[in-house]
Write a structure and sequence with these properties.
This protein has four domains: 2-97 and 226-252, Rossmann fold; 106-219, 3-Layer(aba) Sandwich (Rossmann fold); 262-415, CbiD-like (2-Layer Sandwich), CATH 3.30.2110.10; 420-586, no CATH class. The protein contains 20 helices and 28 strands.
Length: 587
C-alpha cells in the first residue's frame, strides 16, 4: 500500500498518477479543504503526530511513502524521515519545478534575513504574500512599518492572525483580489513571497511586481531533507513531475501498476544527445543523464557510449511497440547555429501534411523542441537508429510517406502502456461515477482536447460528468446503455469520426490507417469536389474545405456516425458533436 502526504498541487497530481493503477492507496492532508477526486484512493484528514503516523502506516501495511507536501513544511518532512525509518519504507519526494534565480530579486535565507534586508533597502510599505503562518516571523517588521498580509479567508487563518495580534484591517484575501489589483490598490514599496516553485504561482507574482516597479524579496526554499541526517536504512528518490513519479513507483513497487510505462524515441534521442554533449565537453561517458521532458520535469535515463557516438536503448515498457529495444544514437558537434539532422535509420518525409516539409528528416516537432531545450548553444546534432530502415517496414510509415527509416516521435516523452482490459475498467468506473453524480447528461470525448471543447459547451455540468473513451466508442456507449444513462453527448474529432462513420467502433490506429476511398465517398455525398490525393492525415481536410463545404461535410459524417452509434444506446438520447482542431464544435 502507498500513502501520499499532500494538500498541494503535487499531491493532486500524485493522486492522478496513482489512480491510473486502479488499486487502493491513502491520501493524507491536514484539512479537508482541498478538493480532490478519488475513485480508488482513500482520504485521511487531520494532522498526525509522528507516533500516530507510524501506527497508521503499520495498520495499513504501508510499503511506500510519497512526500508531496509543501516545500516549506519542514516539520512534516522531518517526521516522514522518522516514519520511513520505523516502517522500513522508501520515500519518493515529489518536489516542485523551480525557475532559476533572478538577479533582480533579493534572495533571503529566512525571515530574519528578509527583515534585515528589507530594512537595508528602506522598505516602508510591504505586501506579504507568504501566508498566515509567517505573520509571527515577520512581526518585528510589521510592528514598525505598514504591512498587509494576504491570507485565506477562513476561520483557522483568522485565528492565527489574531493570535499574532496582526491588525485585522490590514488583512487581504486570495479570493478578493489578484496580486496585480492588490499592488494597484495598496501601492507597496515591496512584496515578500516564498520560493514556492512554478506550481505555487511564484513566477506570476514576481512578474506582476517587477512590471509595477515593486521590489521583490523572496525567502529561499529550505533544504530537503531539512537539516536532518538521512537514517541509514531510509531510501529517498527525487521526482518533480507525474511521469517521474509513475516510473519510480513502477521500480519500487513493481506489482502496483498492471503495466509499465516506457520512453518515446524522442526522449531516447534527447538522452543520447545529452550524453554525447557531456562526452564532448568533459570527456566523460555517463551511464545516466537527466532529460527535461516537455512538461518541464526532469527524468533520469540510462545511456551508453561507443566509438564516435552515444546511445540510448529504447524501453517501451509494456506497450506493444516494434521499436522496443532499438538503439537510438546521437553525435554532437560545435556549429555556427543549432541544427538537427537525421542519420542512418531515420526516415524522411516525402509527402506534405507533417510538422516539416518533404525532404526533412522524420523527427517531429516535439522531439526537436526537446533537443533544443536540453542542448543549450549552437551544435549540429545527428540522430540515427541502428536497423531503423528494416524496423520501419513493420510500421505504418511507408503508407504515410515516411521512407528510409523510422520516425522520431513523442509529445509527452513518455509511452503510456496500453491495456484494453485495464483501460475499459477505468472507463466503466468513470461512467459509474458520472451516473452517481446525478448529472442529467454524461459527455464522452476521446481526450483532453475534445473534453476542453465539450466543457465549454456544457459549463454547468459537474466534472464527473465528463468521461474520456480513448478509442473505445462502442464499448463506452454499451456501458452507458447498461447503466441506464438517459442522455449522452459524444464528442469526436475528425480522424476518429471518419472511422466511426465507416462502422469502426474501436478507432485505435493499429486497426488501420484511414480509408481514402471511403473518405472520398463522404466528400462526394457532401458535394465537396476537392482533391485529397496529397493528404496523409484526415485532419488536413479542415484546411482544404471552405466553411460552407466543411458544414456540409460535417453533416454527412455525423449522419453516418449516428447510424452506427445510436443503436448502441437504444433507450437513451444520443447527441454527436464533431470537434475541430481549434476546439470548434460542428453539429
Amino acid at each position: 500500500m502507498i500513502i501520499v502526504f499532500g494538500g498541494t498541487t503535487e499531491g493532486r497530481k500524485a493522486v492522478e498518477v496513482l489512480e491510473a493503477a486502479g488499486k487502493p492507496f491513502y491520501y493524507s492532508t491536514f484539512s479537508n479543504e482541498q478538493e480532490v477526486e478519488l475513485v480508488h484512493g482513500i482520504r485521511l484528514t487531520g494532522g498526525m503526530e509522528v507516533l500516530e503516523m507510524i501506527a497508521c502506516c503499520r495498520e495499513h501495511d504501508i510499503r511506500l511513502i510519497v512526500d508531496a507536501a509543501h516545500p516549506f513544511a519542514e516539520e512534516l518532512h522531518r517526521n516522514l524521515l522518522y516514519l520511513a525509518k520505523h516502517i522500513s519504507a522508501p520515500i519518493i519526494r515529489y518536489d516542485r519545478i523551480y525557475p532559476p534565480h533572478d538577479e533582480r530579486i533579493v534572495w533571503c535565507k529566512d525571515y530574519a534575513d528578509a527583515i534585515t534586508q528589507m530594512e537595508t533597502w528602506g522598505v516602508k510599505r510591504l505586501l506579504a504574500l507568504t501566508g498566515v503562518n509567517t505573520i509571527g516571523a515577520l512581526k518585528p517588521f510589521w510592528e514598525k512599518h505598514e504591512c498587509w498580509c494576504r491570507i485565506l479567508n477562513r476561520r483557522y487563518s483568522h485565528l492565527l492572525a489574531r493570535k499574532s495580534q496582526f491588525p485585522e484591517d490590514h488583512l487581504v484575501y486570495y479570493e478578493d483580489d489578484e496580486t496585480s489589483n492588490l499592488i494597484s490598490r495598496l501601492h507597496p514599496d515591496a512584496i515578500i513571497t516564498k520560493e514556492s516553485g512554478m506550481s505555487g504561482g511564484f513566477c506570476e507574482k514576481v512578474a506582476i511586481a517587477q512590471q509595477a516597479g515593486v521590489k521583490v524579496f523572496v525567502v529561499e526554499r529550505p533544504e530537503y531533507p531539512p537539516h536532518t541526517p538521512i537514517p541509514q536504512n531510509v531510501r529517498i528518490e527525487y521526482v518533480n513531475g507525474p511521469h517521474g513519479l509513475r516510473r519510480t513507483v513502477e521500480h519500487l513497487l513493481p506489482d502496483f501498476y498492471p503495466l509499465k510505462s516506457g520512453l518515446t524515441t524522442g526522449t531516447c534521442a534527447t538522452a543520447a544527445a545529452v550524453a554525447a554533449l557531456r562526452r564532448l565537453q568533459t570527456g566523460e561517458s555517463p551511464s545516466e543523464v537527466l532529460v527535461r521532458l516537455p512538461n518541464g520535469e526532469t527524468l533520469p535515463v540510462a545511456v551508453g557510449s561507443s566509438d564516435g557516438f552515444s546511445f540510448c536503448i529504447k524501453d517501451a515498457g509494456d506497450d506493444p511497440d516494434v521499436t522496443n529495444g532499438i538503439e537510438v544514437r546521437a553525435t554532437v558537434q560545435p556549429a555556427s547555429h543549432f541544427e538537427i539532422r537525421g542519420g542512418e535509420g531515420v526516415g524522411r518525409f516525402t509527402l506534405p501534411g507533417f510538422d516539416y516539409p518533404p525532404g526533412e528528416p522524420a523527427i517531429n516537432r516535439g522531439p526537436r523542441q526537446m533537443l533544443r531545450d536540453n542542448i543549450p548553444g549552437d551544435y549540429l546534432i545527428t540522430i540515427s537508429v541502428k536497423g531503423g530502415a528494416e524496423i520501419a517496414r513493420r510500421t505504418f510509415n511507408p503508407r504515410l510517406g515516411i521512407e528510409g527509416g523510422i520516425s522520431i516521435i513523442g509529445v509527452s516523452g513518455i509511452v503510456q502502456p496500453y491495456s484494453e482490459e485495464a483501460f475499459l475498467e477505468s472507463i466503466r468506473k468513470c461512467m459509474e461515477v458520472a451516473k452517481a453524480s446525478g448529472s442529467e447528461r454524461v459527455v464522452i470525448g476521446s481526450g483532453a482536447k475534445s473534453e476542453n471543447a465539450l466543457r465549454s459547451r456544457y459549463p454547468d455540468l459537474p466534472p464527473q460528468a465528463f468521461v474520456q473513451y480513448g478509442n473505445f466508442v462502442g464499448e463506452t456507449l454499451h456501458m452507458a446503455s447498461d447503466l441506464g444513462i438517459p442522455a449522452v453527448t459524444l464528442g469526436v474529432m475528425l480522424g476518429k469520426a471518419v472511422k466511426l462513420a465507416a462502422g469502426q467502433m474501436d478507432t485505435h490506429s493499429r486497426r488501420g490507417t484511414f480509408d481514402r476511398d471511403f473518405l472520398q465517398q463522404l466528400l462526394t455525398e457532401a458535394g465537396c469536389d476537392i482533391d485529397i490525393s496529397s493528404i496523409t492525415l484526415v485532419r488536413e481536410l479542415w484546411e482544404l474545405l471552405s466553411e460552407e463545404q466543411a458544414r456540409s461535410f460535417a453533416t454527412i459524417v455525423l449522419t453516418h456516425c449516428a447510424d452506427y452509434c445510436k443503436p448502441l444506446l437504444p433507450a437513451g438520447q444520443l447527441t454527436i458533436l464533431l470537434v475541430d482542431d481549434e476546439g470548434g464544435i460542428w453539429e
